[in-house]
Amino acid sequence: MDLECSRLLPALCAVLVDPRQPVADDTCLEKLLDWFKTVTEGESSLLLLQEHPCLVELLSHVLKLQDLSPGVLSFSLRLAGIFAAQENCFQYLQQGELLPELFGETGPLGQAAWAVPTVRSGWIQGLRSLAQHPSALHFLADHGSVDTVFSLQGDSSLFVASAASQLLVHVLALSMRGGAEEQPCLQGDDWPTCAQKIVGHIEESLCSTATPKVTQALNVLTTTFGRCQSPWTEALWMRLSARVTCLLKRDPIPAAHSLVDLLLCVARSPVFGSSNSSLWEMVAQALSCLGPSHVGPLALGILKLEHCPQALRTQAFQVLLQPLACVLKATVQAPGPPGLLDGMADDAMTVDALLASKSSCAGLLCRTLAHLEELQPLPQRPSPWPQAPLLGAAVTVLRLCDGSATPISSVGGHLCGTLAGCIRVQRAALDFLGMLSQGTSPQELVMQALAVLLEYLESPDSSPTVLKKAFQATLRWLLSSPKTPSCSDLGSHIPQFLRELFLVLQKRLCSPCWEVRDSALEFLTQLSRHWGGEADFRCALLASEVPELAWQLLQDPESYVRASAVTATGQLSSRGLHVPTSPQHTVARQSLLRELLCILSADSEGFPRRAVMQVFTEWLRDGHADVARDTKQFVATVLQVVSRDLDWEVRAQGLELALVFLAQTLGPPRTHCPYAVALPEAAPAQPLTETLRALCHVGLIDFAFRALFDCDRPVAQKSCDLLLFLRDKIASYNSLREASPNTNSMEVALWRWPAGEQTQPRGDQEPEAVLAMLRSLDLEGLRSTLAESSDHVEKSPQSLLQDMLATGGFLQGDEADCY
């Protein structure tokens, strides 16, 4: 601890124990605790207390003051735990009877402050900190602390209850360390005292008829098996597994969610091998007994295991597919080859869940689809994967939701009424349908999938969120269709599908709902980016009114839509998919570049202007025809507009564009890989002095140096990177050493840029002055400074102590660091 902090510490302790003084807020107390943790990690806690007796006085006084703030009392309990984590300091505090007073039965437990959750939480966290050595275990056993922790497991505060369970896990692991660590077959009577007490409490809780008690025990076990992979955990499971099995025989099964978590945690533990038959038998029993709302996560977890008996994997997959099997059997199935869903017997609990209520049915289907979507890309997914039945099930679920399915049983009729217009299930099914595009499916089913997607895109009943999901699923199917071997003859259907798709897209681009227009434009952008070179796509797009409508949406009243329209038209222009000329729209079609420049300079919202800069940067990078016609004039015009923009993201994007122009002018950045072969630098296409003069002429140098002093840190950082790149490229031609600058001109320019003056004409900077400025500025140091957080000065411990003392009026005038 530094001398200044040592000097301030006694006054701070006096403020904390004085009820008349304003108490520092919880944030300051948390920062103070973090500081003490850092100090004790590097120093002896015992030496710290001996050199600063005010800390011991603080701990000894907090319980004697009846009107002390609960926050300060909690802070003191946690601070005592931090000090007592070192065993010699623990013994020192124990000699003074401080620890029993703070954490024993005579401590805060009997005070009125115990009713405050903050105090109870501080008490638990203090014990958690000090429980690091054998002496602490004896203390916990001798002073009844473990019994108090048991009672706090059911605390009304969820934070306190969770912390109590975490503490029990920590104490159990600490007790077994060196006890049964290498002896997994030790009997319970041979376990350490604290371990016996905790395990006995868990056993008692597992036999309880109160579900909260069972939940608490299962959560402690789950955390234990998740954190500890020592041999003693196997002995613990052998002792408790029979009681866990008994839970599966109750009706209803208590704490089913926590039970699933425990079974999966034990199954994932490396302590238990795949040959542990009793564990897998229990899991199989759970798959048969648990209800649909809980068995799904268990089945998914089992299927994600790398080592698991094949019979159990088959059972788990059948359980996971059961809801979709019920759906298919209740409706007219889509044609296709028989799959894994065929021949599965209806499960009574699954049918009951589907018929119970709309929320129950929707919840079960959404969870099933989400689980299968999570399972599909995994290498350990079941094989063969029932692609065709799953695709048929997804289409059927979507048809149930839009009312076009044909039920063949009373269950099917009930599902039609229950799922009609259910947005939640529609979104989940569309996500699942999009995922299935990655597999190989029969052509007939693929056409059905595309047909149902078109129906959803066209339906007036589709909500904006459902439409967005439908657009995303359609995009995934279109992007994957040429790569699907079994659908090689699907190409003949693509032109017709695209024509129908663009008719729907025209309708959606004219929607009164801005979210729909926005989603349609995003879809158009993505589709054009990936399919812009395909003849069928270009023909269908240019034959539609979609390009014209996208152009018109540049003037949309909603800024999000204008931004998406900018991106879409920019992408179409990059692909040469221009709006066809027509007499009635001659004026509006003169130049997209001028239109985007107008948006950049005049749009009142930031989103469209940012989109314009992204389009311009992409155009410059890709050599767009309108940009290549006069690149220097394009860059100069854009930078002139951007330099006046108040949106820092627009200015930052302007620097990105400037960096692209620099790389095209001077060459790409040099590699910094130590293993890369250093190739000689190519000679510049023109003398460096002329190149720099050209950069000055387009305003790039002026823009970059002004941005270096920008009040928004990301802009200054990007400018620093750009100037470092420029200096690095120039240095490779040995030009920095050759410069003979005009010193006065350089100093004047450097003063003008941070002041924001613009009296200097564009392009008047001399190349030699630019070289000298690059040489004189410590750009590496500036980059390091910009990388620091804005409060790095005020985060010092001394500043924290000064602020807390200033709150209590202990500092005079400018001694306080009031930032």
Notes on the structure:
- The protein is mostly helical and 819 residues long.
- The chain has a domain at 590-667 and 688-732 and 763-777: Leucine-rich Repeat Variant.
- The protein contains 42 helices and no strands.
- Helix 3 (45-51) crosses helix 6, helix 17 (292-303) crosses helix 18 (310-329) and helix 24 packs parallel to helix 26 (494-509).
- The longest helix has 20 residues, at 310-329.
- The radius of gyration is 35 Å and the shape is flat.
- The two termini are 23 Å apart.
- Mean pLDDT is 84; it is low at 334-338, 483-489, 584-589, 735-741, 758-763 and 812-819.
- This is BRCA1 associated ATM activator 1.
- It is found in: Cytoplasm.
- InterPro entries: ARM-like, ARM-type_fold, BRAT1.
- Belongs to the BRAT1 family.
- Keywords: Cytoplasm.
Primary descriptors:
66% helix, 819 residues, mainly alpha, 42 helices, Leucine-rich Repeat Variant, 0% strand, single chain
Number of helices: 42
Determine the CATH topology of the domain at 590-667 and 688-732 and 763-777. Leucine-rich Repeat Variant
CATH C-level category of the domain at 590-667 and 688-732 and 763-777: Mainly Alpha
Mean pLDDT across the residues is 84
Structural class: mainly alpha
> Main beta sheet, described?
none
Structural shape: flat
Rg is: 35 Å
The low-pLDDT segments are 334-338, 483-489, 584-589, 735-741, 758-763, 812-819
Beginning-to-end CA distance, first to last residue: 23 Å
DSSP E strands, number: 0
Helix content: 55-70%
Strand content: under 5%
CATH architecture of the domain at 590-667 and 688-732 and 763-777: Alpha Horseshoe
Subcellular location: Cytoplasm
Main location: cytoplasm
Protein name: BRCA1 associated ATM activator 1
InterPro entries: ARM-like, ARM-type_fold, BRAT1
